[in-house]
Design goal:
Elements lengths: L2 H14 L2 H6 L1 E2 L1 H11 L1 H20 L6 E7 L14 E9 L5 H67 L5 H36 L7 E2 L12 H8 L3 H23 L5 E9 L4 E9 L9 H67 L4 H35 L4 H23 L1
Parallel strand pairs: 1-4
Antiparallel strand pairs: 2-3, 3-5, 5-6
Helix pairs in contact: 1-3, 1-11, 3-5, 4-5, 5-6, 5-8, 5-10, 5-11, 7-9, 8-9, 9-10
Length: 434
């Protein structure tokens, strides 16, 4: 029964840890998504909830069971016919018949609940995929931060050697060498900090993929920033998100629940047929029974009132959800646009200028044209601008993941989790038939 459920995860792990992948020692975003879909416990939980809704849909389609009855009358008589001489035995079967379209209305409610469970699962899985992409890019940025930290250490060492030569030649004061020692120590500290940040980022991504440790590196071109979608595109896409679908389904489900509550107020007849045997003369006779509850006290009026109130609540929740979703989308879109503009400004102007300023300061200091403070200031400016650039990248990719989720970028990938589940059920069914 569990064989089908193991095939896809095993294949994914084989691909992920194949010799080719290990040789490159890299992890692609698509591979991360595959591992999340197959191994993340939250994904499996939402898949199971959808399967539970499927089970409920099946249950609501079933008709009431027939009832067998057996009656014994006139036994242990005190009189001329003692004991069981006048006893009557009745054996029969009865069936309740649902009227007023109860079953079809019940199935409709269950269908809507099932689709609501699917959309809820899709929303949750897309949110997990958004977290995965954000964590993936966080690892890539942490790798770049460590790379820059290592360059900073090399740069600080180079500056230290330059100052040391000038001090040895009595062209600079001893205090300048002490200050470069501080810069070297600070660069080493930043490098250790970058290593810890990379470790934490990898642990976060490994957690989402449900693997013990992430040993692979990330391949991402941070210099190529994706474009931001237009505001109108996001607003239009919001109507198709699982969150919007859920709110609409809630309203439709409550409307169907009102119809079902009205139908349940109509009593269902029970029709029975049996055989009666008379012990006195061994005679037999057929017996027909029909019973109908009299709707005097209970006409399901409480459930009808409850369903109407739930409909009003669902309609209000839909308005609240629409406003909240639009507000979130616009906030994330604005953050995305601002962070992208900021990152591009760093790429195209600020970082090249800072690098050029440091090169000029270093060359001028070697020639004696600039002071040590000019060199130190140029070096610190380069560090600070590189750090700000990485922060803007992190903000951009976190906002991008949220916008992608709201615009349905993960919809097809999330839906494949249900395709996988359907294939597993089909394989289990075939094995059970065998």
């Amino acid at each position: 029964m569990y064989k089908g459920r193991l095939i896809l995860p095993v294949l994914m792990i084989m691909v992920f840890f194949s010799p080719q992948a290990q040789a490159k020692n890299t992890l692609k975003l698509e591979q991360a998504f595959m591992l999340v879909l197959s191994q993340n416990p939250q994904v499996r939980s939402h898949q199971s909830r959808y399967m539970a809704a499927e089970g409920n849909r099946l249950q609501q389609s079933l008709r009431p069971n027939p009832e067998a009855f057996f009656e014994v009358e006139d036994f242990a008589v005190q009189g001329p016919r003692d004991g069981f001489e006048a006893t009557q035995y009745t054996l029969g079967i009865g069936q309740q018949f649902e009227i007023a379209g109860k079953r079809s209305k019940r199935e409709k409610v269950a269908d809507l609940e099932k689709e609501h469970a699917r959309q809820e699962a899709l929303a949750a899985i897309q949110a997990i995929l958004a977290q995965t992409e954000a964590a993936y890019m966080r690892v890539a940025i942490a790798q770049e931060r460590l790379n820059l930290a290592e360059k900073r250490v090399a740069l600080a060492d180079k500056t230290h050697q330059t100052v040391k030569k000038r001090v040895s030649a009595a062209k600079s004061a001893e205090i300048q060498l002490t200050k470069t020692d501080i810069e070297v120590a600070d660069a080493d500290l930043e490098k250790r900090k970058a290593e810890k940040e990379l470790l934490i980022a990898k642990m976060t991504l490994a957690n989402l993929m449900n693997v013990p440790v992430l040993e692979q590196n990330i391949t991402a071109d941070l210099s190529m920033l994706p474009g931001a979608p237009e505001r109108a595109v996001i607003v239009q896409a919001l109507e198709k998100t699982p969150m919007s679908m859920m709110s609409r389904l809630s309203v439709t489900r409550q409307e169907a629940a009102i119809d079902l509550a009205h139908a349940n107020g109509v009593p269902d007849p029970t029709i029975g047929l049996g055989v009666r045997r008379f012990a006195q003369d061994d005679a037999t006779a057929l017996l027909a029974i029909i019973s109908i509850p009299i709707p005097v006290l209970n006409r399901n009026q409480g459930r009808i009132a409850e369903a109407k109130a739930n409909l009003l609540a669902a309609q209000s929740d839909q308005d609240v959800q629409r406003l909240g979703l639009t507000k979130l989308a616009m906030e994330m879109w604005q953050i995305l646009v601002n962070a992208r503009e900021e990152a591009l400004e760093y790429q195209n102007n600020i970082l090249p200028f800072a690098q050029r300023a440091y090169t000029q300061a270093e060359d001028g200091y070697n020639r004696g044209a600039f002071s040590f403070l000019d060199l130190l200031d140029a070096q610190r400016t380069l560090y600070n601008e590189q750090d700000k650039y990485l922060k803007s990248l992190n903000t951009f990719y976190e906002a991008k993941a949220q916008v992608d989720m709201l615009t349905g970028a993960y919809a097809q990938t999330a839906a494949s989790a249900f395709d996988q589940n359907t294939n597993e059920k089909g394989q289990d069914k075939g094995q059970n038939n065998e």
